[in-house]
Design the sequence.
């Protein structure tokens, strides 16, 4: 019997808490939302922060009849959340700008002369590869593409232990032919 009375009083208490929270929400929502809109300048962010403010109020559950100033508490929590959001945004913006600045500094600007020189090098390399033995050309291209020795051996139907020496010979042959072609064109 006492358990039933206790459950009934808790049910009535939770219903009255819910109703009082809804009343507080309706009474203070507009003011808190406007405060946060002015503070953060983004309506969506302000709405999220206002909801977080009221969520914290719901967790706090002030005792009725106490000298708890709900409006003041909501204002303080909303202000703190807004300031924290602004600091987070500024910190994130600083990190992103710094990272972007370093990324731009690290990449060399492509000047037309550099682009033309790279294209000329590619043309010469293709020409040399076309003049070389097919197996040596394939070996160089596959290795330059990052393929492992084992996979190259499988593709070219060679022993994996022979790839190193064959690659060395192919690189020497490529270098010799490349130098000769460059001298020819000068």
Sequence:
């Amino acid at each position: 019997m006492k358990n039933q009375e206790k459950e009934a009083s808790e049910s009535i208490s939770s219903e009255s808490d819910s109703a009082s929270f809804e009343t507080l929400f309706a009474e203070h929502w507009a003011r808190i939302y406007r405060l946060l809109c002015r503070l953060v300048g983004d309506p969506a962010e302000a709405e999220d922060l206002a909801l977080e403010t009221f969520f914290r109020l719901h967790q706090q559950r002030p005792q009725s009849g106490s000298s708890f100033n709900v409006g003041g508490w909501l204002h303080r929590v909303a202000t703190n959340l807004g300031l924290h959001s602004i600091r987070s945004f500024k910190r994130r913006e600083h990190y992103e700008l710094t990272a972007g600045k370093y990324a731009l500094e690290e990449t060399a600007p492509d000047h037309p002369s550099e682009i033309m020189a790279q294209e000329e090098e590619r043309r010469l390399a293709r020409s040399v590869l076309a003049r070389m033995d097919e197996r040596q050309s394939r070996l160089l291209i596959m290795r330059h593409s990052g393929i492992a020795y084992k996979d190259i051996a499988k593709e070219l139907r060679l022993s994996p232990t022979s790839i190193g020496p064959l690659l060395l010979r192919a690189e020497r042959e490529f270098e010799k032919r490349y130098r000769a072609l460059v001298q020819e064109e000068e």
The two ends are 107 Å apart (CA to CA). Residues 4-13 have pLDDT under 50 and may be disordered. Residues 2-40 form the longest helix (39 residues).
